[in-house]
Amino acid sequence: MDDLTPAELRVLVAVDGEGSVTAAGVRLGLTQSAVSHALRAAERKMGAVLFRRGRAGARATAAGRAAVGHARHILRLMEVMRADTRTAARGEATGTIRLAAFRSAAFHLLPRVLVRFGRRHPKVTVDVRVVPDLGRGIAGEVADGRADVGVLTLPMYVDGLVCKELYEEPYVLAHPLGHPDPRSLPMIDWHENCSGETRRWLAAQEWIPPGDITVEDDGVVMSMVGHGLGAAIVPRLSTVDAPARVATAGLGEGAPRRRVGYVTTRELAGSALIRDLLGELRTLRTPAAPAAATHP
């Protein structure tokens, strides 16, 4: 048969994740020879070289990256099949759901969702990872099989996934409390996915100077604003639990808004357990109001 076995799929994922045949063997509890044999068998069945092996380890080819992505999905669907079958047989769900989210969503939105979900499914573990919402980012984690569900900024930039908008929120100007002219301050910039409409609005604002400081985390932005280093344009959710020295101001008529949603695969959306988690996510209509900010 030309179909890859589950063992061969696990070898592909392990070699890709560890970067070497030897390390993959340690991870799987197999000898180096057994891993090499399984890898050769997979390449023969696929009719393509999947990894370039050398002294530096094993690196996936373009064909290998495609195969590994599918392997992760297939293995995950096998796990979901077992979990859903046991749930149907025993009436109680078990297993793990892997969820990726941007920082402020993980901090301020997901806890409420996971408390409710956990009450109904006490034996299910939700593994939450904070992933930068940049480029393929969170959607890429789901598409590549590293996460089952993602909470991210829309629009997303990866095709072939199922997504739904949960809510939208305004961007605001965060600035040091009590400053008489926040728009005159240096600008603290940060990297995030945003819509083309938002980028165009920002580019059209002559009062916004180039970023004097650039960081990768909106929590760091809030700390810097609180220390008086400058001002920043951020989604309102980023200001929840900001330092007491941070205030916010509206950006006026026509200011951009951030759309937040979830993403998963079509196959996983068919799982009863995943559907239940998505249902809880859909209860998120608006973010919590900032507790430590003022709104002139």
Put simply, the count of helices is 10
Tell me, rounded to a whole number, the average pLDDT. Answer: 90
Report low-confidence residues grouped into runs of 5 or more: 289-296
> Quick one: how many beta strands?
11
What is the straight-line distance between the termini?
69 Å
Radius of gyration: 23 Å
Give the ordered list of helices and strands.
HHHEEHEHHEHEEEHEHEEEH
Oligomerization status of the protein chains: single chain
Major sheet size, sense and barrel closure: 7 strands, mixed
Q: Which structural class do you get from the secondary structure elements?
A: alpha/beta
Strand coverage percent: 15-25%
Question: What is the percent of helical residues?
Answer: 25-40%
The 3D shape can be described as globular
Written account of the structure:
The protein is an alpha/beta fold. It has helices at residues 6-18, 21-28, 32-46, 62-90, 103-108, 110-120, 137-143, 196-204, 218-226, 272-281, and strands spanning 51-54, 57-60, 95-101, 124-130, 149-154, 162-176, 187-190, 211-215, 232-235, 246-249, 257-264. Helix 8 links the parallel strand 7 (187-190) and strand 8 (211-215). Helix 1 (6-18) packs across helix 3. Residues 289-296 have low confidence and may be disordered.
In short:
The protein has 296 residues and is of the alpha/beta class. It contains ten helices and eleven strands.
Task: Kindly list the characteristics that best describe this protein.
seven-stranded mixed sheet; 10 helices; disordered C terminus; globular
